[in-house]
Structures are given as structure tokens and as C-alpha cells.
Amino acid sequence: MSPTGGGFCFEQLVELAGFSVAQAITKVYSKDQFPAVAVFSGPGNNGLDGLVAARHLAHFGYRPRIYYPKRPDKPVNKGLMRQCELLDIPFVESPDAGLKDADLVVDAIFGFSFSGEVREPFRGAIGALSKTSLPIVSVDIPSAWDVEKGDIGGNGLLPSMLVSLTAPKEGAQGFQGIHYLGGRFINKHMDEKWGLNLPDFPGTDQCVRLGSAADTQTRASVGNRMDDHFLHNVASQSLF
After folding, report:
1. CB 172, CB 9: distance < 8 Å
2. Which CATH number goes with the domain that contains 182?
């Protein structure tokens, strides 16, 4: 997600992404049936999206709580945490505390840039989520999935819903659950440049449901390439 590609700064993109995740959740899991939401946030950008989503869910009338064991000492992280604290959103100290009496889980642990072996404390967190019967909403790509090949190790999460950001990732082509696209910030020039052929977003919505595996497949590989370009440019601007 590039400040040079679309004119956005990093913080704006995180806000738009997290807002789209929260809105997508409201389309499927109502606050009346799924009021208590456990948000599991990782140390990177995906975790920031989770913090933003938690804040918006609180404003929407849900009762989020956040498991955020690795908290980088950066202004954007501290600012988003402070916003959640001022809404009385609790930060819990263990996966079990997050899952206790929860109705829904948001998996914002690892996203597009994940690679290598899952280490603690996130190995235990993913293990706990793998055992729960609660519905799980993953942000951008299910945690521990390879962004190009999917759940190749067989150790990744199997969420009931996925909210891809910017464009579906190649590794999500085999995803069989409810699939939304979020992040309404791609202008027509970027869409044409990358050949995305993104679907129209309905009305004022920040998310759109993808109706079939074909919707994912036609956009997935270019989504990977575009996000790689975005991440490179954002990093070069020292916005992480």
C-alpha cells in the first residue's frame, strides 16, 4: 500500500483497511448474535488493521477485547492502542482470556508479509484458534498461510470468513468460506495499471462480497504483485 501510488500515507491506509474489516464483519455477524469479539493482533501491519477494526466494532455496538502480545514501540501502534483504551476496550494477556465467553474471533495475527516459522507467543495463539469452535474472520490472508500457495504446511487457520485487502491474494484461491474484499482506496489509474478489474463497491460500503472462486482467481496473482510493490514503497518512506 503505497503513499506514492495512491497519494495516501500509511496511517490512512491502515485506517481504511481496518474500517473495511469491521464493516464486513457487520454484514455477516450481527452485534445481537455475536456481540463479544476477540481480536488477535500480531506485531505487524495486519495487527494494526485489527486494532482499527476493534475500535470501529466498539463504535458499532460490539464488545471487542484485544490480545496483542507484541507491541512495537512506534507512534502508530501506541496511538491506536490509546484510542482503544479510551473506548474501554480491554487488552487481555493470554489467548484463553481472549476466547473466554467470546462469540467471534478476528484473526489479525499474520498477513501478507508472513514467512518462515511461527514462533511463540503466536504459535500458541494460532493453536488456540485452531481448536476453537467459534467463527473466525481472518484479515487479508489466514494466519500462517503462504501468500502465494495457501495453507501448504497444513498448520494455518481455517476461518469461516476472509476479508482480503486491496485485492485477493494468490494463496486465497482455495478458500471456501465467506469472502469479502475491503479497502476502498484503489483509483481507476491503479486499477488499470495493475489489471485488477476490481468489483464495484455497493453504495457507500467499504467492502464488497466476492461471489465465487473465480472472483478471487481472476485478481489474485496481480494482487500479490501489487501489494509487494506497495509494501516496498511504504517501507522506503519509513512509515512503518
Report:
1. no
2. 3.40.50.10260
